[in-house]
Amino acid sequence: MPGAIHAEGLVKTFGEVRALDGVDLDVPEGTVLGLLGPNGAGKTTAVRVLTTLVQPDRGTASVAGVDVLRRPDEVRRSIGLSGQFAAVDEYLTGRENLRMVGRLYQLSGREAKRRAGELLDRFHLADAADRPAKTYSGGMRRRLDLAAALVVRPPVMFMDEPTTGLDPRNRQQLWEVIQELVAGGTTLLLTTQYLEEADHLAHDIAVVDHGRVIARGTSDQLKARTGGERVEVVVHRPEHIPVADAVLRGFGDGGSAVEPHTRRITVPVSGGARLLAEIIRELDARDVGIDDIGLRRPTLDDVFISLTGHAAEGAGEPDGRSEQQRERQQGRQPGRRQGRPQGGDSP
Ligand SMILES: Nc1ncnc2c1ncn2[C@@H]1O[C@H](COP(=O)(O)OP(=O)(O)O)[C@@H](O)[C@H]1O
Ligand SMILES: [Mg+2]
């Protein structure tokens, strides 16, 4: 059964530019697909096709089981769209904006008022609710835009780069709101240039470049496919380096790298955390004391570079956050240990 969002063979050209060059997508109900790609990859065009704003040259698509090309009006009734086409009226207050959207969607006056109040609370806008939207900060505008898209509780949502240009605090807040939304069962297609955002929010990721999907899978699958998982061990005593090195090479998939001055040995592996436990047992059996041991996994940045040969634009330091801040943020993701693979033979 096709998912809540389904597309096959979408092609869209603008003059010489093939903005979409045969895109297939499938988003199961209640899941989040992250459409990840650099500027100009075709993300917005894909969203515009799926939300009935642009006609593709070729291909088919359905949203919530309804054909996008044949029954666009019906599709529009079951989706919410937020992002690069903010529908917010600058001169109205936040509350007025939301009530107006409710009325547009045929809610009763009372229901529109109630829904506006509920959304203003949920999006941390209650204090600013009665100020004109033009006085809002960028983060507040983005939240109001998202709230407007949610007035009628659409089962399928599209968000086009929802956090581009936001500072870390606002980005974090928006992520929380998006996570709540998804926990409520909404199907979401989200575009982003930020690998970390896709990693954080998306169940599945489709990497797009030049109008094509060049890879898809979960964040973990994409990382595994890229390879580059390594075990790093720091032994306590320098004289233990040779025996530890022999043990690690026994478990590894390739040659080891030894840094005598730091007593660090690194070896590429596939087998993850279970292998780590075996290595610890083996080193212990040989009386090798260890100061540190860890599994270093590739990041989505590594994945993107290995797939496309270039970094995702805007990724890395999208908003001037320091490396330290990013690490703190990554540190909050349970069960994830992200570190760049060491050594010179990365893919
Ligand atoms: N209305 C348009 N007219 C001409 N070219 C367009 C139009 N919309 C998009 N493009 C081009 O199509 C390509 C994909 O654009 P877009 O879908 O906006 O990418 P993204 O959202 O990933 O940055 C780009 O080269 C862009 O310049
Ligand atoms: Mg875009």
From TrEMBL:
Pfam families: ABC_tran (PF00005), DrrA1-3_C (PF13732). Its EC number is 7.6.2.2. InterPro entries: AAA+_ATPase (IPR003593), ABC_transporter-like_ATP-bd (IPR003439), ABC_transporter-like_CS (IPR017871), ABC_transporter_ATP-binding (IPR050763), DrrA (IPR005894), DrrA1/2-like_C (IPR025302), P-loop_NTPase (IPR027417). Keywords: Antibiotic resistance, ATP-binding, Cell membrane, Membrane, Nucleotide-binding, Translocase, Transport. The keyword Translocase applies. One of its GO terms (cellular component) is plasma membrane. Residues 318-330 have a biased composition (Basic and acidic residues). Residues 309-347 are annotated as: Disordered. It is a peripheral membrane protein. It is an enzyme of class 7 (translocase). Belongs to the ABC transporter superfamily. Drug exporter-1 (DrugE1) (TC 3.A.1.105) family. This is ABC-type xenobiotic transporter. It comes from Streptomyces mobaraensis (Streptoverticillium mobaraense).
